[in-house]
Amino acid sequence: MRPVPGPHCLLVTGEKIVSVGRGIDIAHERFGDPEAPAVLLLQGISQQMVGWHEEFCAELVARGLQPIRFDNRDIGHSTHLSDAPLPDFAAAMAGDVSSATYTLSDMAADGIGLLDALGLDWGHVVGLSLGGQIAQTMAIEHPDRIRSLTSISTTTGDPAVGQIRPGTWENLATSQAASREEAGDQAVTVLRVVGSPGFPLDEAEVRARAGDAFERAPQDRDGIVRQAVATIATGDRTPLLRKLDLPTLVIHGADDPMVDLSGGRATAAAIPGAELVVFDGMGHNLPKQLWPEVADRIAALVHRAG
User: Fold this and answer.
1) In this predicted model, what pLDDT tens digit does every residue of 146-167 receive, in sequence order?
2) Which of 10, 108, 196, 203 could be 138's S-S partner, Cβ–Cβ 3.0 to 4.6 Å?
3) What residues does each domain of the chain span?
């Protein structure tokens, strides 16, 4: 492992790719003490594992955790199902999900397969947006492997809650970036629309990190469609969330235009004993200014879970 300088010294294994079965390889990176509680970090749709900033991972390490960030299937350096037929997104929105390549159950199984490949009997999950839905599914379908759940900026799958704010989708960049510069421009545009109005936006850093992600692995537009249809095909998890029995933290922004706060409230209401934390001024991202408090809350949850 190599040391990485930062606000807290942390050890990093470097990116590795492992087979998790069913023809899927998952790219991942581990931080901190390999004997510390393992916390799987799941990103949102179209987002690579590098969306979890190294400094946020360092905050978790400083609190005695072992964060493991990874690329979901169809993103970054993990397996892309490029040979599969492209799902019909319009049909899925209309209720016909027969063209789905996979569901959130398959994506959840990838995370469990990663635990297996790393020789970990159990872990804790932290998911943001789509990652939160996958994390919920991992807890539902693999209760013997998941000891705590942190669900951020996401919803239950019930179409009556967590809706996108009218006009938001139309203001997002939809063309595929063809260069590092375009990727940076698009990332700034997206965060101006869905980011956190109560916190400053560091455009230079956003551009730099988006450019780095572009050079690491250009966006797979078809992969994004496959992920989106997977969420639709999985349906409403509310009845299953009510059966969960594990420490749960639900975090949501009061100003989230992509997933209305009602999605976070419904998630917390469905899961017995879940704690709901709402941050004023937070949108559909995790502002740097909140990292210490979020890390505190995740660590408290993990250590309480044992």
Assistant:
1) 999 999 999 999 999 999 999 9
2) 108
3) 2-85+102-168+235-305
Computed on alpha carbons and rounded to an integer, the radius of gyration of the chain in Å comes to 18
Amino acid at 209: R
The sign of the dihedral angle between the CA atoms of 142, 146, 147, 152 is negative
Cα separations (Å) of 285 from 47, 251, 256, 288, 299?
12, 11, 8, 9, 20
Instruction: Give 61-75 pLDDT, tens digit per residue.
Output: 999 999 999 999 999
Predicted confidence band of residue 3 (pLDDT cuts 50, 70, 90):
very low
Residues 6+ apart with CB under 8 A from 157: 133, 231, 234, 235, 236, 237, 238
State how far the Cα of 158 lies from the Cα of 77, in Å rounded to an integer. Answer: 31
CA distances for 22 relative to 47, 81, 106, angstroms: 22, 12, 9
**Per-residue tokens: 53:** 């900033």
Distance CA 164, CA 179 (A): 29
Q: Does domain 2-85+102-168+235-305 have CATH number 3.40.50.1820?
A: yes
**Alpha carbons 172 and 46: distance in angstroms, whole number:** 13
